[in-house]
Amino acid sequence: MRSRRYRDRHAFYEVAVQGVDWDLDFLERLFRGRNGRKARVFREDFCSTAALATAWAQRHPGNLAWGVDIDPEPLAWARRHRLPYARGTEGRVTLVRGDVRRVRRPLADVTCALNFSWWVFHRRADLLAYLKAARASLSRGGVLVLNMFGGAKAERPLVERTRKSAGNGPDGEPVPAFTYVWEQRRFEPIERRLLAHIHFELRDGSRLSRAFTYDWRMYTLPELRDAVLEAGFRDFEVWSEGWDAAAHTHTGRLHLRRHLDNDDCWIAYCAAWK
Fold first, then answer.
1. Contacts of 5 (CB under 8 A, 6+ apart)
2. What is the reported pTM?
3. Do 263 and 148 form a contact (C-beta atoms < 8 A)?
4. CA 91, CA 139: separation in Å to the nearest integer?
5. What does the alpha-carbon distance between residue 167 and residue 221 come to, in Å, rounded to a whole number?
6. HSE, side-chain direction, 13 A CA sphere, residue 236
7. What ranges make up the beta strands (E) of 13-137?
8. Using alpha carbons only, what angle is made at residue 75 by residues 46 and 213, rounded to the nearest 5 degrees?
9. What is the pLDDT of residues 136-194, one digit of tens each?
10. Domain limits of the chain?
11. Considering the chain, what percentage of its residues have pLDDT values greater than 90?
12. CATH number listed for the domain at residues 11-149+219-273
């Protein structure tokens, strides 16, 4: 009976998609490796429910975090379900409803736009405007990290299902077990436009159809690299997860790449350095 009443798409999304500690471990390691010091000021663009921004503040009492999103609904969810339960972060997490293409203060050490969120920019001019604003909002030696995916399976219709165990949301509310469904509905190669949906199927037979819908332009790595350098960044890096051939599994650690194998599906984290 509990699962039939449970319709919180944001709680389901966080369980299904986000790897907060994994992402933050990499961002900290990336910045410290280049600058020889720890990052303290963090900005999460397209932050939605601000899981990364809040977790960043929880990692150290000197950490400050900003989350920026143009949609008021997930920000309201974060204020209701996350911030009141994030002990010790009072005054160190700031949520902003606004356009990520605006220059913001204070300057961040690390800014990220993850979960392929920046693919909402269908026009290159809009992407370039975002990159320029992000660069101007970084401290000296700061880094902007964006992720993207590609490969043969990325450019065709498909449906993938992944079972997720029951757990708890950030407010302590139990989240029932469910199946996460990723549907790539249509890919159009001239505009490189991908239409995709996320559905959630509960084990009592109920379903949240099209809980999230994405209309993305799938940029390529050279397109992003060229735009990053045109925006004034001094360096561009591509990182991807290692592969253990003996165990037939990923290693859980990202490595700097000069070349990528064009697997069925690859995910890359791209670092743009100021």
1. none
2. 0.94
3. no
4. 21
5. 36
6. 18
7. 41-45, 64-69, 93-97, 108-113
8. 55
9. 999 999 999 999 999 989 999 999 999 999 999 999 999 999 999 999 999 999 999 99
10. 11-149+219-273, 152-217
11. 89
12. 3.40.50.150
